[in-house]
């Protein structure tokens, strides 16, 4: 039987210290006690949203980041103003006066220099994108009692085509992320894969021909407002497991990419999609394109909603290795071949972290 959200909230609330602890003490929680609190969270369908709805004013211990990455101190008044932070490139897929080669070149530069870029001119009507975000928000902000969609879809079974839960790596991670997710397995054919193939110097349909975009996993993330955002994290720093990621986000912000050893905010651009390189693309491109670490910071102001699409087919029996056209005497193979299923399973088994999984596939 599913326990009530009241029981969970009472149990986790009891674990919250009455006075704020020092940062280096926030996660000193015995494994046995931590396991009990994780299972209490996992036993109700209200999840993080339920904690916020119950009125918690402090972050429970299981969400507290062991080593928070504090922002650098502000410059003193005697110092010069710091330079404006950089921003990820924006590529207009319908721009450059219809010059396709110019668009491909822009994608190539963005992929090589950043691994992240925003795209406009993609042809998706704003009303459609807005409706998708609104639907994701409505699902996550709905109740979680028995008989609801959340109860029906709740699962941690990786084989389920549609499921809902809080943190896929809840029991592996040092700290639970302040978010919950609806997972949907779909099968469209995204045009981004075609543009990326050309950016690698391959024919337009190359990535489609080898099955990189057969199947889609769509993740609808919800990040409730956090009462102590400095102690928690929305999503741990990580690189994505797949070939490419296409992200639609609302206007809340919070997504950051690590560039030149510096966290850079990705300011939401109305109507734009964010595209980033995944681990499997780094593997098959032999490091021509690299996946990049990114994260989502917790915020106290309002909830954040994002919809992420991963072109990937975990049931494929094709072995993916280095694209032969990209190999040479000066550029030997750096990674061993793998099934998508095997790589994704390994990625999920160790949980989110700073590019842990891909290093295990280097030759």
Automatic annotation (TrEMBL):
Protein's recorded name: Fe2OG dioxygenase domain-containing protein
- Comp. bias intervals (Pro residues): 68-88
User: Which PANTHER family does UniProt cross-reference here?
Assistant: OS04G0182200 PROTEIN, OXIDOREDUCTASE, 2OG-FE II OXYGENASE FAMILY PROTEIN
Respond yes or no to whether keyword Metal-binding is given for this record. yes
Query: What family is it from?
Result: Belongs to the iron/ascorbate-dependent oxidoreductase family.
Q: Which PROSITE patterns match?
A: FE2OG_OXY
InterPro entries in the cross-refs: DIOX_N (IPR026992), IPNS-like_FE2OG_OXY (IPR044861), IPNS-like_sf (IPR027443), Oxoglu/Fe-dep_dioxygenase_dom (IPR005123)
Report domain Fe2OG dioxygenase positions: 214-314
List all membrane-crossing ranges: none
Q: Kindly give the Pfam families that the UniProt entry links to this protein.
A: 2OG-FeII_Oxy (PF03171), DIOX_N (PF14226)
Q: Which UniProt keywords apply?
A: Iron, Metal-binding, Oxidoreductase
Where is region (Disordered) located? Answer: 66-92
This entry's Gene Ontology molecular function terms read: dioxygenase activity; metal ion binding
This chain's source organism reads Oryza meridionalis
